[in-house]
Design goal:
185 residues, alpha/beta, 7-stranded mixed β-sheet, 6 helices, 33% strand, purine salvage, PRTase_dom, adenine phosphoribosyltransferase activity
């Protein structure tokens, strides 16, 4: 039986994240969380980190960013007994939406949220799998603010500090929590 009493959870979970070189383009080191999610122990450990962080906070909703933020966010919302709100890529939500465009490394993208996804004053945790340049997280943050939500924190499994996204989010006045980080891209 594995001894977990002195376990460094961040390092342990990081060991389950696969690095795929040159995907989706040359020079990119893609951080694949699939192995971490496939293992029931590491998936539970990951969710438990977030549950323990937020269980004593007054949280009304978890907002997950398309698509891996849906996986983590919906399970976290269930565990905290709060609602879940999807923030999706443009054209995927069936009801009236509000949109936010943001810059990618090569072009622009847009995310949307239902106009009734939250109400003014709702206390929300915004979650995704990774913070790189911060564009997607900032777009989600801006959408939630447009609806009057109080975003308590941006959370992710991974931060890539060299790309500056975490700092961009912090500079915008939003706290950031990540489980682990990687140097380089």
């Amino acid at each position: 039986m594995e001894n977990l009493s002195n376990l460094d959870y961040a390092s342990y979970l990081k060991g389950w994240i696969r690095t795929v070189p040159n995907w989706p383009s040359q020079g990119v080191m893609f951080r694949d969380i699939t192995p971490l999610l496939q293992n029931p122990k590491t998936f539970r450990m990951l969710i438990d980190i977030y549950v323990h962080r937020y269980m004593l906070e007054e949280v009304d909703l978890i907002a997950g960013l398309d698509a891996r933020g849906f996986i983590i966010g919906s399970v976290l919302a269930y565990e905290l007994n709060v609602g879940f709100v999807p923030i999706r890529k443009k054209g995927k939500l069936p009801f009236t939406t509000v949109a936010e465009e943001y810059e990618l490394e090569y072009g622009n993208a847009t995310v949307e949220i239902h106009t009734d996804a939250c109400k003014a004053g709702d206390r929300v945790i915004l979650i995704d799998d990774l913070i790189a340049t911060g564009g997607t997280m900032m777009a989600g943050y801006n959408l939630l603010k447009k609806l009057g939500a109080n975003v308590l924190e941006a959370a992710a499994i991974i931060e890539l500090p060299e790309l500056g996204g975490g700092q961009l989010i912090r500079d915008a006045g939003l706290d950031v929590f990540t489980v682990c980080s990687y140097d380089g891209h």
